[in-house]
Amino acid sequence: MKRAIVCIVGRPNVGKSTLFNRLAGSRIAITEDKPGVTRDRIYAEGEWLNNHFTLIDTGGLEPDKEDTIMTNIRRQAEIAIDTADVILFVVDGREGLTSTDREIGNILHKSGKETIVVCNKIDSQKTSDELYEFYELGIGDIMPISAEQGLGIGDLLDEVIRHFPEDADVESDEDLTRVAFIGKPNVGKSSLVNYILGEERTIVTNIPGTTRDSIDSHFTFKDIEYVLVDTAGLRRKRSIYEKVERYSVVRTLASIDRADVCVLVIDGTEGVTEQDTKIAGYAHDNGKAIVIAVNKWDIVEKQDRTYREFEKKIRETLGFINYAPIVFISALTGQRVNKLLETIDLVNNNYNLRISTGVLNDIINQAILMNQPPSDKGKRCKILYGTQVGVRPPRFVLFVRNKELMHFSYERYLENQIRSHFGFVGTPIVFELKEKGE
Predict the structure, then answer these.
(1) pLDDT tens digit string along 304-325?
(2) Which of 283, 284, 347 is nearest to 320 (CA)?
């Protein structure tokens, strides 16, 4: 069964993103009183009376405008409308009906989709006379709301779920694996997501900062359903001028926090940069599984050892994530993108891998025999036993005596011993020390 899809459309600054955030129950879309802030389709999960659905916010439509970004916004909105089961056509109750509203209304008429006209910014009880002009659109009843204050939202949602297809899947999908594509601007994150999805889900241009929000897309690989998250590229702080872009940075970091697997996309023509290091460090510090994707490999000039030298430089610069596998790809041609998907699948399995206590202690005891724990002035740190207490990422508790003598280098040694037996490719391993008797 297909998840019911609700799409929000309208001209700029009528409150689409505010309504989106209200229906999604969190501040996912950037809301700023400035046209063009929401450029891509932004996805979230909505729920009303145990009916779960996919909610899509779209960029503000201005049919007469012909610049590159507006053309892309219009194409994105058209794709969203094509896939939607219910369309929320948002208009501004304060400004009244405009010619742009009429043009959008004509587009929606032609789509033949179930459409609800949502008259926003009605902050007090208006008489129905003042809403009459919107009936000119010929789409149906008008739902007066205030997205900012939450007025009329319940009545609107009652109307939305009434229009769902009978065979719609309305069950929760909280158990999906989230994969965030992270990296600095213009390395090809959106192109990669678009290639994987087989459609232009996100706007792709060569203008850095085009993706301002983090965009969720559902994707199935090997019968496992993933949520792919295309994030806004993180720039150096001194390069962030716009208030909106500062919000984008926050959204990107939040997307990493919510992700299970992070794909760090590096520009193969530039190599690893300081910004790549900071982004990878944030994902690592937050215990995320990581895959490194070197993009644009099709246009890199190659010699006999180019591949190995590039890999060596990555390992030297990003030594703190030496567990992360590296895949050389081209989002443009699709070169080795399938291998990247296979690697994401492998890393996700390792992220959820659990070792039995008996096997873990066999590994620890063997490691101790080969290399004793550190000591100081005749006192030695003694490891009594260990157990795995969690996954995503794998988390181990070691019960010890004299834990103040434990050195991080010995923890790294134990980590390497565990990896030599079980791999844990792509995932960090977390240790916690406890004095016996704590």
Answers:
(1) 788 899 999 999 999 999 999 9
(2) 284
What's the DSSP call for residue 388?
A: E
- Is 122:93 a contact under the CB 8 Å cutoff? yes
Residue in this structure with the two tokens 């998840």, named with its chain if needed:
3
Q: Token pair for residue 173?
A: 């999908």
Going by the DSSP 8-state scheme, the letter that residue 222 receives in this structure is: T
How far apart CA 13 and CA 16 sit, in angstroms, is 7
Q: pLDDT of 202-213, one tens digit each?
A: 544 444 444 434
Which amino acid is it at 16? K
Partners of residue 326 on adjacent β-strands: 292
Taking the CA atoms of the chain, what radius of gyration do you get in angstroms?
26
Q: Render pLDDT for 380-430 as a digit per residue (tens, 0 to 9).
A: 899 999 999 999 999 999 999 988 889 999 999 999 999 999 999 999 999
| Tokens encoding 195 | 């290639």
Please give the Cα distance from 395 to 415 (Å, whole number). 11
The answer to whether the beta carbons of residues 84 and 7 sit under 8 Å apart is yes
DSSP secondary structure string for all residues of 1-44:
-PBPEEEEE-STTSSHHHHHHHHHTS--S---SSTTS--S-EEE
User: Tell me, what's the pLDDT at 172?
Assistant: 55
pLDDT at 60: 67
Q: How far apart are CA 333 and CA 337, in angstroms?
A: 9
**Angle at which helices 337-351 and 189-197 cross, to 10°:** 90
Torsion angles phi and psi, residue 44, rounded to 5: -150, 165
Q: Which amino acid is at 427?
A: T
Closest by Cα among 85, 150, 95, 162 to 123 = 150
The CA distance from 313 to 217, in Å, is 32
